[in-house]
Amino acid sequence: MLKGFTPEKIYLATGYTDLRKGIDGLAGIVQEQFQLDAFSDALFLFCGRRNDRIKGLYWDSNGFIMLYKRLESGSFRWPRTTQEAIQITAKQYEWLCQGFEIEPRNRPVKTDGLKFS
């Protein structure tokens, strides 16, 4: 989303979020649903039903910053399995913004004596 922006932690709200929510609504989800501190040095990312746009929420010591990104083409590879907040790495955040999967699908299995890592 922003180059050079590296908060201490990055959380991804899996599932679907109503992106009509503003700062107060998203902060409420962080605190009430996920039991996390919205005022910490963390970026919280949300995705609605359409995979081409996401919102981010970040506390900047004296106020919230809300980020919004809409892709012109392609879509974000968003985990839709459950409604929880998962912590991701800075590298996974970079991959997400580039349209790559951040979760491995199925790990390769060992075949013919070859070992996959």
Structure commentary:
With 117 residues, the protein is an alpha+beta fold. The protein has one domain (9-97). Helix content is 16%, strand content 25%. Strands 4-3-2-1-5 form a five-stranded mixed beta sheet. The protein is globular, with a radius of gyration of 16 Å. The two termini are 30 Å apart. The relative contact order is 0.22.
Helix/strand layout:
Blueprint: E1 9-13, H1 23-33, E2 42-47, E3 53-59, E4 64-70, E5 85-88, H2 90-97
Parallel strand pairs: 1-2
Antiparallel strand pairs: 1-5, 2-3, 3-4
Helix content: 10-25%
Subunit organisation of the chains = single chain
The secondary-structure element order is EHEEEEH
Strand content: 15-25%
Distance between the termini: 30 Å
Mean pLDDT reading: 83
In this structure, how is the largest beta sheet organized?
5 strands, mixed
| Secondary structure tally: strands | 5
Strand order, main sheet: write it out: 4-3-2-1-5
